[in-house]
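Deviation from plan, reported transparently: 2-acetamido-2-deoxy-beta-D-glucopyranose complex.
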Amino acid sequence: MPRSLNIFLFFLCLAVITPTMNASELETEKFWKEERPEFDQYWEERSVEAKEFNQKAYFPDPFEVSGNLTASITEVIAGKNLRRNLRGNKGGGQCLATNPIDRCWRCDPNWADNRQKLADCVQGFGRNTRGGKGGPIYVVTDPSDDELMDPKPGTLRYAVTRNGPLWITFAHNMLITLQQELIMNSDKTIDGRGVDVYIANGAGITVQFVKNIIIHGIKIYNIQVREGGTIRDSETHYGLRTRSDGDGISIFGSSNIWIDHVSMKNCTDGLIDAIMGSTAITISNSHFTDHNEVMLFGANDNHKEDKIMQITLAFNHFGKRLVQRMPRARFGFVHCVNNDYTHWEMYAIGGSSNPTIISEGNRFIGPENKMVGKDLINSKEVTKREYTDESIWKSWQWRSINDEFLSDAYFIQSGPELKDRPFSRQDMITAKPGSYVGRLTRFAGNLQCIVGKPC
Ligand SMILES: *[C@@H]1O[C@H](CO)[C@@H](O)[C@H](O)[C@H]1NC(C)=O
Ligand SMILES: *[C@@H]1O[C@H](CO)[C@@H](O)[C@H](O)[C@H]1NC(C)=O
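Because the crystal trials were delayed, the predicted structure below was used instead.
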């Protein structure tokens, strides 16, 4: 190769790759070898228990689950339900639910007396998540977070560390600045409906070796690295934690997780990470902005336990000033359905280590070309296979079905075509589903629900 071309390629690579270089700390070998301390005996036991329930949460036939979600969206689009819902319902007031998850609860004017009904609404891989359903309602009254070992009753940290199911609501609007990561115990719902709850300017939420978590209707932003310390994680245990890395929500070895109608931006590390054999996760109706590395599903090419990872991304809006990783996946199975990808700088969906990615009915709007120095940077490709030769990735199953591509966006498919799926009932659909995304995601992010009215 002529030297000048070599140099040119080198600079081109630099221009394209530089932003990837600040890879998530979790992805470095150094982190796993040196910084991740050995778990103490308590967490060792928790991890063994978690492995068992994560394995049970795994669906041996992921296409069945993703097909079911697709079929119910098709019904909303093709049937009269959407129009009926848009016109309002007998309960009084207008109900604007535009997708099958929302349609399950938003039209009920008594949603506030019926909060636990929400737990029946989840679809996709997180479909068996019940959160705190069946447990008492716990009302957070105190936004402070001063006592990490012995949290004050009335605080969010007190609520999430109780043993047993709890449905957590908030007495009034509040800004909660977490002094250290908020370590959740199993069987909890954080339900911000009806008030404005901001978790911001401090540590983020940690979902480690637990199951059954719903996080709904809150805003999470400006999450920062915190140094760690002694932190309570359940009624019966507290322990020493090292540095938290600044994720908004960190899912670690956990299953049956549903994140819905959450608005997130500007966290130090990822907005949402799911790693270490986590599975049965649905992330829906959420709005993401102002962030570089949005979602990391699987942190390390050696973590083969992530093969059981199954995640649904549905009706989310990936919005302004996002750069990459929506998501970046390893191993596992990701169903991206009816999301609105309006902004990315580098790529939207990427990965390594043979993840399966089914992209269905999304809208992808390619970014404008831009000049970086003398180079024209074109990032209209939706997909990115990281550090892998085409001879290898050509067998990974990355399929795009009924996606809509605007502004020259394009998806490079690979692997076997999809066959025998329920969603091939295409005759039910009057238009390409991708073109409905604007409507399906119109209410992505935190909702303003008023007690006594449909939301
Ligand atoms: C998918 O839907 C069908 C029909 O409603 C149901 O019988 C089946 O159990 C569902 N599959 C899963 C995995 O939930
Ligand atoms: C992002 O968050 C950091 C704190 O983690 C803050 O210093 C910075 O101002 C925030 N940026 C924006 C654009 O809000």
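Residues 64-65, 68 surround 2-acetamido-2-deoxy-beta-D-glucopyranose (ligand 1) (CB under 6 Å). We consider this an acceptable substitute for the interim report.
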